[in-house]
Design goal:
alpha/beta, Arc Repressor Mutant, subunit A, D-Maltodextrin-Binding Protein, domain 2, five-stranded mixed β-sheet, 20% strand, elongated
Length: 336
């Protein structure tokens, strides 16, 4: 019986997957934090272990052969399962002292993030919160640099990543309070005829989403000013320089400028919403994702929405839609 089972070295399998994904031994070594020689040795050991070659070495960049493609299709699940087993063993022996790495889009990290850290502090030994753009956070989750990611889009392999709806927020238009006092607008069309429209950069998802909304509503506004962050954008609106379309979380993130801006009505449309999701690797951190979801919804409902309505009376009545997340939570509870 000793020779009837062919084992798989997980470190070698991880190196194999990295080479397949990066199409380069050198890049795979960089991703894994080892030398190229170490990656080559792991691949050679894996091929000896399996008794077959796994790459077509006549081609550049490197690519898996037929056997390699079969292994690559199965490798993700094997590595995810091994990671889940390791995680479950660790948490079983050290309940309440785990480490958690959360990645969030900037507006979530700056608005909801501090509340999440406070409410999870007693459960975790260490907690790290990173912020960044959705594509970067998704890649970091896939590369195991993050345990949980809160993003506004998800394009990762659903066989490896679980996606949970969190909430959606309604886009809102803002203009200088002084300008609107002198020239009361009927709608945002009136504002963009007089003031430049300040935009988020197109490299961000919110910038792309706002641009779709601008085109959908036929706002004729030249693209002259773009910003990565909400703070300079809202500062310029407050100073009277221009107007903008942004979101409730972004407004809360830069709430120091709210006394000098006012909300201008936008037509209701599904395009005028930004969706948030919680991403985890399959079979990992499911309970924590549900806890983060509950806490996030509570913060938007009990803190951020009332605060924005108090600061900006013209805000839409329903800033956040949590129905999808709440329906999934009910479904999870029923299945358990």
């Amino acid at each position: 019986m000793r020779n009837t089972f062919v084992g798989v070295d997980l470190r070698a399998l991880q190196a194999f997957v990295a080479v397949c994904e990066t199409r380069s031994m050198t890049e795979a070594a960089r991703v894994l934090g080892v030398t190229q020689s170490a990656v080559s040795q792991l691949i050679a050991a894996l091929e000896r272990e399996q008794g077959v070659a796994l790459f077509d070495r006549e081609f550049r960049p490197v690519r898996p052969n037929a056997a390699g493609r079969i292994l690559f299709e199965q490798a993700g699940g094997l590595l995810e399962h091994a990671q889940a087993v390791s995680h479950n063993v660790r948490t079983a022996t050290s309940e309440g002292v785990s480490s958690l790495r959360i990645g969030c889009v900037d507006s979530f990290a700056a608005s909801v993030g501090p509340f999440i850290v406070q409410r999870l502090a007693e459960r975790m030994k260490t907690l790290s919160m990173w912020s960044g753009l959705t594509p970067i956070l998704s890649e970091q989750l896939a590369n195991r640099e993050l345990d949980l990611a809160i993003c506004t889009d998800a394009t990762l392999d659903p066989r490896r990543v679980e996606l949970r709806p969190l909430f959606s927020e309604t886009f809102v238009a803002v203009a200088p309070k002084a300008f609107c006092a002198e020239h009361p607008p009927r709608n945002f069309h009136d504002v963009v005829r007089e003031l430049p429209l300040l935009r988020y950069t197109g490299r961000s998802l919110i910038g792309q989403q706002v641009e779709r909304l601008v085109k959908h509503m036929n706002f004729h506004a030249p693209n002259r000013y773009e910003f990565d962050d909400t703070d300079p954008l809202l500062s310029l609106v407050a100073s009277g320089f221009g107007c903008a379309i942004t979101s409730p979380l972004c407004l809360w993130q830069s709430r120091a400028h709210l006394p000098d801006v006012t909300v201008v009505p936008l037509p209701l449309t599904r395009i005028g919403h930004r969706d948030f999701y919680i991403l985890t690797r399959r079979s990992e951190w499911s309970a924590m994702a549900e806890a983060v979801s509950r806490e996030s919804i509570a913060v938007t409902r009990d803190v951020i929405a009332p605060g924005l309505h108090a600061a900006l009376p013209g805000m839409p009545a329903h800033l956040f839609d949590t129905h999808a997340a709440e329906a999934e939570a009910v479904g999870n509870a029923a299945s358990n």
